From TrEMBL, chains A, B:
Pfam families in alphabetical order: MarR (PF01047)
SMART domains with a match to the protein in the record: HTH_MARR
Entry protein name: Transcriptional regulator
Entry-linked Gene3D superfamilies: Winged helix-like DNA-binding domain superfamily/Winged helix DNA-binding domain
């Protein structure tokens, strides 16, 4: 191995080690907060995520749930089946797409999801609390543009398109126009 | 709830939803790449992480491994015990600190860890590949400063101090001075 190749391997190890430590720390905190948030509702994170996606995407195929939920197809399928058994969602085929199985949230599932949303307390969320100094400094939430650019490279633009769709759907839950930051993405204009 | 409070809850939900999606996507990719990297060595991620920390921190207490490895104390302890059974590390008390159990990597553990490092192929790492367009644009790896600031808020400055220690230790593995970016953190100056 040449000296330059060695340096480039070292650079890669340093960079990916740093990203592994930052990303594990971030995700484990988010996971823990998410678990405590939905614990009273007898749902695990995967189940809540599936209901969330089915609701905000107004129905989704198992492969969409797997992709946007960042879970294996069999995980998406198995937890969806458990939710179906509790009448929180239904499986169906679509007229124009007989090959894929679609998932639709039921009124009971919608009611449960909205109850979880009402139980959401920003003050219990470590990420929300941790971001406050940056928010005060910037006058808005930080954009994490480098992180978004990296995820776009790794997961493709569709992943971020679905994220935008689900965020617009959350915004449209609220009757009055929200803060300026998101006005260009909103459905009310 | 007042209209302003509603907006602030909505803002919090939007922000934490976005962070959950970005962070889950990032971590799951890193986890998957890490698993494939160390698969040939009969180690799981936790075991590899423990060896890594014990090596680069030149010994560590179980609670340091738990904190920097972002794993539960019992996880850190149990996997350390498994590594001890394979003679990859040893447990000991320190003269000046009888209360904590310290973990030291053995020569056999060091040999195995270095073998994993030699098997590291940047071209198999999705994060390394995904970051290339940013690296070309910036002329260096992106800094992810917002992410670091957030982790500093949530985990405290010690977490990043340990990260810097482990990165300096990786750098010092290489005989020749590395790239400029890290020269101000290096041990050679």
């Amino acid at each position: 191995m040449s000296h330059n190749e060695e340096i480039s391997v070292q650079e890669a190890i340093l960079f990916t080690h740093k990203m592994a430590q930052l990303s594990k720390a971030l995700w484990k905190t988010i996971e823990k907060d998410w678990q405590s948030w939905i614990k009273p509702f007898d749902l695990n994170i995967n189940e809540h995520h599936i209901l969330w996606i089915a609701y905000h995407l107004k129905g989704a195929s198992v492969s969409e749930i797997s992709k946007f939920g960042v879970m294996h197809v069999s995980t998406a399928f198995n937890f969806s089946k458990k939710l179906e058994a509790r009448n929180l969602l239904t499986f169906s085929k679509r007229e124009n797409d007989k090959r894929n199985t679609y998932i639709e949230i039921t009124p009971k599932g919608e009611k449960l999801l909205l109850e979880t949303m009402q139980a959401y307390k920003p003050e219990n969320n470590s990420i929300y609390k941790g971001v406050q100094p940056l928010k005060e400094l910037y006058g808005k939430f930080p954009d994490f543009l480098e992180l978004i650019a990296l995820i776009r490279q790794v997961y493709g633009p569709e992943y971020l398109d679905i994220l935008n769709r689900s965020m617009r759907s959350i915004e449209s839950e609220y009757k009055e126009p929200a803060m300026e930051d998101h006005s260009n993405e909103s459905d009310w204009n």
